[in-house]
Amino acid sequence: xxxxxxxxxELAEANAFVRQHHRHHPPVVGHIFAIGxxxxxxxxGVAIIGRPVSRERDDGVTVEVTRLATDGxxxxxxxxxxxxxxxxxxxxxxxxxxxxxxxxxxxxxxAAGWRKIGEVRGRSWSCPSRPRVDKHPTQAKLLFEPMP
Length: 148
Prior knowledge:
Largest sheet: 7 strands, mixed
Distance between the termini: 30 Å
Shape: globular
Radius of gyration: 15 Å
Number of strands: 7
């Protein structure tokens, strides 16, 4: 039986994978750490963990899975969510969370022991004083964190 293993990744390598495999988000600019799921030495999924996007959650002890992408390998998503949580706590952070689109089921998060803790309405970052072009989905999102 082939087994997934965790690999430490540089941001450039993780972003290259995200560019190729993520359904609706581009690569990230910064991160705290990145990990990959490897199968027989080949990266089949990546998780990029960074500072929370929300100012309210950016308290110095909370991190966020800002990108997670796989090539479709079975169980790679839940494997990465579990590994990201373990690495986060091992590094001394107190909380980790992630947002998914409200239209997504969250099956991999549930399988990894995470639970929905909130909902956020969708919105644009653009405003009259600082117009922007949205490069992300603006629909509602669900916030998940691992169960204690």
